[in-house]
Specification:
binds FE2/S2 (inorganic) cluster, globular, alpha+beta, five-stranded mixed β-sheet, 5 helices
């Protein structure tokens, strides 16, 4: 089946199998491997990206369901060599350890602040509950998101 999507501002038209998951399409066909696969059972959030402005776990979406959509992945967040404020906040607040969960955390966090620009700590924790960090670095992840929300990343 043929699908057409925009990924990080670039149009792509590709043939995919009906069973192809969006995360596999993004990684294997589009070639953007920043979107990670941690479980493929919709548990971990490592595969989170934005589809038409909404955070989605891309292992729960078929590539054909994304036909016609506008997709943003972690590779599309930085602009002109400048980290996105959320990426900068994670960097400044040591919001990552091994980094495996980080792309999904950052994408989920950007989506969270788009819906709720000034969350409480409890709201950040609740908003990110679908994203697991096997390094258990949650304290600094939450700190990073709150710093980004304050517009102060230090
Ligand atoms: S790989 Fe999608 S939720 Fe874990
Ligand atoms: S930093 Fe290692 S899984 Fe989160």
């Amino acid at each position: 089946m043929q699908i057409s999507v925009t990924v990080n501002g670039t149009a792509h038209t590709d043939d995919v199998e009906p069973r192809t998951l969006l995360v596999h399409y993004i990684r294997d066909t589009v070639g953007l491997t920043g979107t990670n696969i941690g479980c493929d059972t919709s548990s971990c959030g490592a595969c989170t990206l934005h589809m038409d402005g909404e955070s989605v776990k891309s292992c729960t979406v078929l590539a054909v369901q994304a036909d016609g959509s506008d997709i943003l992945t972690i590779e599309g967040l930085a602009t002109d060599g400048q980290l996105h404020p959320m990426q900068e906040a994670f960097r400044q607040n040591h919001g990552l350890q091994c980094g495996y969960c980080t792309p999904g955390m950052v994408m989920a966090a950007v989506g969270l602040l788009a819906e709720n620009p000034h969350p409480t700590e409890a709201e950040v924790r609740e908003g990110l509950e679908g994203n697991l960090c096997r390094c258990t670095g949650y304290h600094n992840i939450v700190k990073s998101v709150l710093a980004a929300a304050e517009g102060a990343s230090a």
